[in-house]
Amino acid sequence: MTQETELVYFISYVGAIGLILLGIYAIVMFRNLIRIIFGLMLLESGINLFLIIIGYRGEAVAPILVNGELPTAIMVDPIPQALVLTAIVIGVGVQALALALVIKTYKAYGTLDSQILARKLAEETGTKVIDGIPAPVFETGNGLEKSLK
């Protein structure tokens, strides 16, 4: 393997890991549901790129039969490519469903902020909000309510 090829592999791995980390950051740090979905898209793209990089071999050929015979050269593993193609199709479906749910949520509650949504849902269901997280309320038997802390 030449030094240029090693550099391309390194940059590809850094790019894939960078996309994965950006996606995780967006999912964890943002409160807006659209930005969380974009983070999910970045995470998915990073994982797909990582799988493609793992299955790539620079000197290999596609595993296609020619006149009923296998090629004599080293072949690329087709499994990661098939997995990524399936993951892309599933990802598009998940993204479409998530965006449809976000639209319905915005129409119902008038906001896309996850903490405001948590408070509004807690008010509707009668649960308490502790540190921005809805906590279930349990009956203690003597008519008093007790919430988890």
Describe it.
The chain is mainly α and 149 residues long. The protein has two domains: 102 residues, Orthogonal Bundle (Helix Hairpins), CATH 1.10.287.3510; 36 residues, no CATH class. Helix content is 63%, strand content 8%. The chain is built from four helices and four strands. A hairpin with a 5-residue loop joins strand 3 and strand 4. Helix 1 runs antiparallel to helix 2 and helix 2 runs antiparallel to helix 3.
Helix/strand layout:
Blueprint: H1 3-29, H2 33-55, H3 78-109, H4 114-125, E1 128-130, E2 133-135, E3 137-139, E4 145-147
Antiparallel strand pairs: 1-2, 3-4
Strand content: 5-15%
Number of domains: 2
Q: What is the mean pLDDT?
A: 86
* Total DSSP E strands: 4
| Outline type | elongated
Order of strands in the sheet with most strands:
1-2
User: Which value, in Å, is the CA radius of gyration?
Assistant: 24 Å
Main sheet attributes: strand count, strand direction, barrel closure: 2 strands, antiparallel
Low-confidence spans: none
Helix content: 55-70%
Q: What do we call the CATH topology of the largest domain?
A: Helix Hairpins
* SSE order: HHHHEEEE
SS-derived structural category: mainly alpha
CATH class of the largest domain: Mainly Alpha
CATH architecture of the largest domain: Orthogonal Bundle
